[in-house]
Amino acid sequence: MKRRKFIQLGYSSLMGVPAALSLRSHHRTAKYPIMKKPKLETPLCDLLGIQYPVIQAGMGDVAGPELVAAVSNAGGLGILTGTMLPPDILRERIGKIRELTDKPFGVNLLLHRDLYPPAEHDLDTAVVQQVQGVLNGFRHELGIPASNLEPSGVPPLIQSDFDVIVEESVPVFSVGLGNPSGEMVAACHQKGMKVMVMVSTVEDALAVAANRPDVIVAQGSEAGGHRSTWEKKPTNEFAAIGTLPLTAAIVEAVKIPVVAAGGIVNGKGLMAALMLGAQGALIGTRFVVTHESMAPDFYKQKILAASSDQTTVTDIFTGMFARVIRNRFTRLYAGKNIPVLPPGRQYGVSMDIQEAAGLQRNPDFFALYAGQGLDLIQEIKSAGDIVKEIIAEAVNYGMTK
Ligand SMILES: Cc1cc2nc3c(=O)[nH]c(=O)nc-3n(C[C@H](O)[C@H](O)[C@H](O)COP(=O)(O)O)c2cc1C
Fold it and tell me: Which residue puts its alpha carbon closest to atom 5 of ligand 1?
């Protein structure tokens, strides 16, 4: 109950007079006859300089400048993916966002221990051949050359990308799969930036909090994409706590504002997050299925068609556990019962397949990252409309239920 009074919601009237009320009061909308602009604020909005507590996740190969600007222009916080981007391209994309919006935005990097800096792994040649043997079957179907090569690791771009983010004084530095050092957080704070870090366990939330970021994202196991841990867990059963208990527990455990993530796609989901004590929602999958996302159309269509029972958490695309929609790649690879290479290396070994699948618009061999909220996603929409609908639904729900 303590935290509920921090949520302000209602409608601004045509005259621009804010009509805010606490969630605990049960005023009906009739009290606010001229409804124009829904209002839903938490202290996170002030902290980040945004209008609504809706954050679009920085998503690899999905979240480009157009998506980010559309969300930020609608009053939420858009986050650009910086993953695997050479620093000059990252700087260009930040510049593009600034052409499209004057609102706050973020840039996301993955700080996993195997990626930052890229880990050295001595690969067992026999294992590599086993993996390549299965992947060559996929290559054959796609009509691309077979390979028996040992894959290289990911390029060492993260430090230079971080330097660009700080040089550019990006309003929010967003971190997945990692715990930024106290020095990294301090470097951001010196430039007046905020730091947001995503975790999947209470233990990790406590470790992250010690380095004093501004926001912690509680990523429940419903989430699409990679589980946000900085080292690989033994199986996909670890760091797999649902959004509901994880958010509530992290809110209790840390004194930093918490944002909930995983399976949230609409206003009711946002309200549920706020009821748990979170100050906002970070949303990924819903924003994949937008006009502005960089995701190919066949992938958006797969999300529209799939049900949440069709997702699985697997490490076969990158070597790190991630929630995806099952397809031929996941079924055939799992069926062979062969090992998976270490984080980064498994991505390197299968990159050509995913690239070819993308070019051929073939969902069978593409990594279809998606969260369990996909049953509620029925249409490709513009990202700004999604933000507005989430807020309108949340405000109406909060005022009438
Ligand atoms: C396609 C896709 C790509 C993602 N890529 C990243 C990423 O690069 N960095 C990151 O921090 N999180 C990434 N995530 C995870 C999101 O940050 C977030 O935890 C998740 O999307 C929330 O769950 P939801 O998809 O059910 O909304 C990705 C998620 C998706 C769906």
Answer: 59
Alpha-helix residue ranges (DSSP H) falling in 152-242: 158-167, 182-190, 202-209
Question: What SS3 state is found at 369?
Answer: strand
* Alpha carbon distance 127, 140 (integer Å): 20
Helices (H), 12-86: 43-48, 65-73
Report CA(313)–ligand 1 centroid distance (Å).
13
User: How far is 129 from 150, CA to CA, in rounded Å?
Assistant: 8
Pocket test residue of 54, 55, 59 for ligand 1, highest count of atoms within 8 A of CB: 59
* Cβ–Cβ under 8 Å, residues 280 and 44: yes
pLDDT digits (tens, 9 = 90+) for 265-307: 999 999 999 999 999 999 999 999 999 999 999 999 999 999 9
For 323-351, write each residue's pLDDT tens digit: 999 999 999 999 998 999 999 999 999 99
Q: What number does the ligand 1 atom closest to the CA of 372 have?
A: 26
CA of 142 to the centre of ligand 1 (A): 27
Rounded-to-integer distance, Cα 370 and Cα 374, Å: 7
- Find out whether 78 and 46 touch, Cβ atoms under 8 Å: no
Extract the residue ranges of the chain whose pLDDT is less than 50: 1-4, 13-34
Q: Which atom of ligand 1 is nearest to the CA of 265?
A: 27
Beta-carbon contacts of residue 76 (< 8 Å; ≥ 6 apart): 50, 51, 52, 53, 54, 55, 56, 387
